[in-house]
Amino acid sequence: MLKVILMSSALLFSQVTLADELTEEKKQVIDEMLDITGALKIGEMMGQAASNQMIAMMRQQNKDIDPKVEGIIKDEMNAIMHDEFIANGFVNQMSYKIYHKHFSLQELKEIVDFYKTKTGSKMASLLPEITQQSMMEGQKHGASLGPKIQQRLQARFAAEGVGPK
């Protein structure tokens, strides 16, 4: 009886180990999904957002910014983001871990199949733009909260008799 229990346990644990293995096939399906969805453009999007934010901050300090300076900032930020997110494989490696954790191979194949449909293709083509617009709207909203946050903190500090010195 003990042998049966030990063998059953060994079989169970070996199947769990196999189920948790990130196979080359699963990586290939994830790569295909990243390609179809345009997720590899994340570095480019981050570079654009970061350079726009940097330029906006510089404009607050100095209204007259040489257009050549703006061009250099955009070029370098895009290059850095591409190198650090795409060229070195960071996005792929990060995605393997995340998607492997949440989706089975079969589910990933179904997602890829969806993206190959007309509706899925439309969604995939618009996803980077939608993501960028969402990020910009979120940043704007977050920036608009500054005065409200400051007001609430000051009121709370006053009510509790504490505050920054």
Could you walk me through the main structural features you see in this protein, from its secondary elements to its overall organization?
With 165 residues, the protein is an all-alpha fold. It has one domain. The chain is built from 8 helices and no strands. It has helices at residues 2-19, 24-37, 42-61, 67-87, 90-102, 105-115, 118-144, 146-160. Helix 2 (24-37) crosses helix 5 (90-102) and helix 2 (24-37) packs parallel to helix 6 (105-115). The longest helix has 27 residues, at 118-144. It is extended, with a radius of gyration of 24 Å. The model is unreliable at 14-18 (pLDDT under 50).
User: Which descriptor suits the 3D outline?
Assistant: extended
What's the helix count?
8
Q: Separation of termini?
A: 72 Å
Q: By helix and strand content, what is the structural category?
A: mainly alpha
Helix content: over 70%
Give start-end ranges of low-pLDDT stretches. 14-18
Strand count, sense and closure of the main sheet?
A: none
- Give the tally of structural domains: 1
Rg over CA atoms: 24 Å
Number of strands: 0
- Helix and strand succession? HHHHHHHH
How confident overall, as mean pLDDT?
Answer: 83
Residues in β-strands, percent: under 5%
Signal peptide: 1-19
Protein name: DUF2059 domain-containing protein
Domain DUF2059: 93-147
Keywords: Signal
